[in-house]
Amino acid sequence: MDDNNAPIFILSCERSGSTLLRYIMDTHLDICCPSELHLGRLCNSLYITMDSSIGQIDYAADGGNQRKNLACEVRAVVEDIMARYSANREKKIWCEKSPQNVNYLHILSEVFPQAKYVCLYRNSMDVVYSCIKFNPLGFMLDTAPYVKVMPENTVAALLNYWCDYTAEILQFEEKNREKCFRLSYESLVNNPAQTVQNMFDFLGYTTEVDDLLDKVFIDPHDYGEGDLKVRFSSHIHSTSIGKGINIPLTSIPSEMIPRIDSLNTKIGYTSIASYYRTIFNSEVSSDHGGQTKNPVDLRESEINSILTEVCDRKSKNGQKIQGRCRLIIQGLSEGSWIIESLHGLNYMARQGNEEADCTIALSLNVFSDLVKQIKNVSDVYENGEIGASGDLNLAIKFGRMLFT
Amino acid sequence: MQNAAIMPVETASPLFILSCERSGSTLLRYIVDTHPRIACPGHLYLGRLCQYLYYTVKSSLGHTLSGDKEKKETTLLAEVRDVIESIMVRYATAKGKDIWCEKTPMNLEYRDILVKVFPEARYLCLYRHCLDVVYSCIGLRHYRYLPEHIPYVQHRPDNLVAAMMSNWIDKTAQLLEFEKQHNGITHRILYELLVQNTDATLTSVFSGLGLDWDEVLTDQIFRQAHDAGEGDAKVRFSRGISAQSVGRGVEIPRDLIPGDLEKKADMLLDELGYPSIAQFYVEHGAGNTLASSKVNTAVGELLRDLGERKANLLREAPSLHGHVCKFIITGDDGGAWTIDTVGFPVISMAKEGGAFTSTIALSSELMVALAEGRRNPMEAYEEGKIQVTGDLDAAFEVGRILFA
């Protein structure tokens, strides 16, 4: 196998756009890319079997070359399957996209030393949001073990998953720069033509990118494991970017943030704090399923007015809640307010981000829906669209005060 | 105890040993591998490999096949069989054998795909009494659990007896069901008969397979070389087939056995012709199986004698080249000795400040039991009665040469 016929592997977390990228690859005249084949685990399994069988005979006296020889044996089996598949699809090269392959990079690089890799990254919060929304009744193969370890906080569990896989891909990329092409989901959907052109240039395949992109959702692709959503798409869109902002910031354990931010820096993403201060287009970030027709147009000054009005109204009621609550509205550059009743007198709301007895966090869209009474706070809480930390009883009291 | 209508082996049909873990499958592997026509290496995980191959082939070549569903399925299974046969036939041929056998206990989980891929195969269904399996499984637990046991331990971390009983119940029920569904290709073996009445049992087993078992072969089981591989390392330390582990389960405190599990276990035990849990405790009476003779041999004398008898074997072992082991004996006649393969004598009293590549520590009572062949060193290690540090492989080899 020469470099021109080397296979391609897409490395990514789940829910990072690998199926979209597979459709793009599969549309190329020279490349076939079926659904997830889990070739990494197959190579590993073949190696284990061969090591304990023919490895005891054929290579027993071959010392240090045993691993290399067995890797050749494994490659012969996998190549036989994939070459026949490629020939049937009238393509020259095959590409494999299973996210699970990230766990088997060591054996894959031994078995396919000439392979090329497309390292596909996506923002952590958008990956987590997509994993949660995609798995209402269960989790995928790779993410399930993480949820099993931390079932009490799915966001933290999935962030751990993102961190582990992203770190693994980054490390591999670092060691194999000449074989790896870095790609972000965001650039793929925001600027598909240039991004795809750069990728094929790196891989050494020429193509008319605009024509190829026009055919992505028209050309037939073999069905299989992967993202069903892509099968219902008719074009590349960027509406999924920023949806992670709907995840309450309070769900992210503070001790995890340095690791996430360190990985974000390496990839070129903003920090978690910056992400939550980003004002995404409301049509983009909203997950209201059509309930909100108009974009959220609330600005910080208007929120100040709303909170002051609520505080004034609730101050007229008898007993006041003792304590200080921080309200974080995600998607604003200065989206943190302090609400408290000083000395048991009137409630006050002011912008600030100091420590409080409890914290309530929600997205701008959810806040907007609550104040407009499009949604009620108990439904929002049940849907996980509002989060709390610190003194939870106090947070519930403040939640009732603000939103009922 | 064997099925009536076993079809004889007409061609070189493969054999599979199916069992719960810790049921003697490695011993049976050594026995089968001793047969002049059968090659049986260590764990090959062929069931898992079949499953992975089937998945990959179906998701790639499967899309290119024509014909109805049944024809496609037949083709896919043949693809999987061809890959595995190509490995296993090469292995068996190199060993001068024409039948291959696979013994991975985890294959039980993959029995359905195995039967589809190898419909002509024969299946040796190996059983062992519940309490002895549980006792053996718990003996392994000092530093880790077998991957197969982890879900059961996670379910009942408060009661490992219950966890391991559940494991035995699930797997024994699966194996019995498999026997019922595939009566013509299965053959039942009870571990207890295998170790207590070896020749008669083996004659019956091989006769059922259409093969002969010459009693001369029984003496060859531990003399003949077998390929290294994953499995129960205890067998590597055995000098012959021993029934000393039968009834060890009586050591399990009765009050740790939950009533509901005892009922389920009793039903399965009855189906297999084993004594119930209650009868087992009566028949084996606590303490009888572990009785040991009084230490009456000076340990120093014993070690010197061992050193003289085993000096050549220790010196000639390639893996012990440059290895110096510290042998610490605690209790009566205790002290520290050095095993140096280039020293004269090989075993001598340890000196202050000596440099060692490994350390083995055990009691004087156990030392005597090992030297007299009353205890199996691997079993004692698994029970935590022998502590090993440093170069584990070399230390194990020292133990194997001294006590096997």
Question: How do you describe this structure in short?
Answer:
The complex is a heterodimer of chains A (404) and B (404). With 404 residues, chain A is α/β, with parallel strands linked by helices.
Short descriptors:
heterodimer, A: 404 residues, 5-stranded parallel β-sheet, 5-stranded mixed β-sheet, elongated, B: alpha/beta, 16 helices, globular, disordered N terminus
Describe this structure in words.
The complex is a heterodimer of chains A (404) and B (404). With 404 residues, chain A is an alpha/beta fold. Chain A is built from 19 helices and ten strands. Chain A has helices spanning 18-27, 39-52, 54-57, 66-88, 105-111, 124-134, 144-149, 154-175, 185-190, 192-203, 209-215, 228-231, 257-267, 272-277, 282-285, 300-315, 364-371, 377-382, 392-403, and strands at 8-11, 31-32, 93-96, 116-121, 180-184, 324-330, 336-341, 347-351, 358-363, 386-390. A five-stranded parallel sheet of chain A has the order 2-3-1-4-5, with helices on both faces. Chain A has a five-stranded mixed sheet with strand order 8-7-6-9-10. In chain A, helix 2 (39-52) crosses helix 5 (105-111) and helix 6 crosses helix 8. Residues 282-294 of chain A have low confidence and may be disordered. Chain B has 404 residues and is α/β, with parallel strands linked by helices. In chain B, 45% of the residues lie in helices and 12% in strands. Chain B contains 16 helices and ten strands. Chain B has helices spanning 25-34, 46-59, 69-94, 111-117, 130-139, 150-155, 160-181, 191-196, 198-208, 216-220, 259-272, 277-284, 299-316, 364-371, 377-382, 392-403, and strands at 15-19, 38-39, 99-102, 122-127, 186-190, 324-330, 335-340, 347-349, 358-363, 387-390. In chain B, helix 2 (46-59) crosses helix 4, helix 5 packs across helix 7 and helix 7 packs parallel to helix 11. The radius of gyration of chain B is 23 Å and the shape is globular. Chain B starts with 14 loop residues before the first strand and ends with a helix. Residues 1-11 and 286-296 of chain B have low confidence and may be disordered. At the A-B interface, helix 2, helix 3 and helix 4 of A face helix 2 and helix 3 of B.
